[in-house]
Write a structure and sequence with these properties.
With 170 residues, the chain is mainly α. Helix content is 83%, strand content 0%. The protein has 9 helices and no strands. α3 packs across α4 and α6 packs across α8. The radius of gyration is 31 Å and the shape is elongated.
């Protein structure tokens, strides 16, 4: 490389380093990183406020599950965030309207919860539910647990006992 080329290269590099277009990313990188961290912290704070609003509200996990489905959200967590956001924005009426539209689904969810709780608090076991699922022709042990729970809630334990005897005698 000739001396002239060296001088030209030196001038070109110096000019490039002093122009804003090339220096800007280097100078602004810490500022951009700070903005990203700050934005992430704001998002986390907002999410915490939404969850706190949901948890201190009258709405339940079952409400969130039903609304997640209704709103097309991927999970009950996302519904909790949306419910919290609506609460923070004083739009509780939107939540109540959506729940009223889905009262049947909510009742089914609540009823299933009660049935599973009744099964869980009973003397019946998973194996009993397995045997009865087959005996009753149900698609799953879960469905048998629901049916057993329903019979318990309706004070029909004798039907469960009779079905167990019948299933075991076959």
């Amino acid at each position: 490389m000739s001396k002239k080329d060296n001088i030209t290269l030196t001038i070109a590099v110096s000019a490039a380093l002093t122009t804003n277009s090339l220096m800007s990313p280097i100078i602004n990188a810490p500022l951009i990183a700070d903005e990203i961290v700050q934005h992430k912290q704001q998002a986390e704070n907002q999410e915490n406020r939404q969850i706190e609003a949901f948890e201190s509200s009258k709405y339940t996990y079952d409400d969130a599950e039903v609304l997640a489905s209704f709103w097309g959200l991927p999970s009950s967590w996302d519904a909790k965030l949306k419910i919290g956001s609506l609460i923070l924005n004083r739009k509780n009426s939107e939540i109540d309207r959506a729940l009223n539209k889905n009262k049947k689904a909510l009742n089914e969810k609540t009823n299933q919860h009660r049935q599973i709780e009744a099964f869980g608090n009973s003397k019946y076991t998973y194996e009993d539910a397995e045997v009865l699922a087959s005996f009753w022709g149900l698609p799953s042990t879960w469905d048998a647990k629901l049916k057993i729970g329903s019979l318990i809630l309706n004070h029909k334990n004798s039907e469960v006992n009779r079905a167990l005897r019948g299933a075991r005698s076959h």
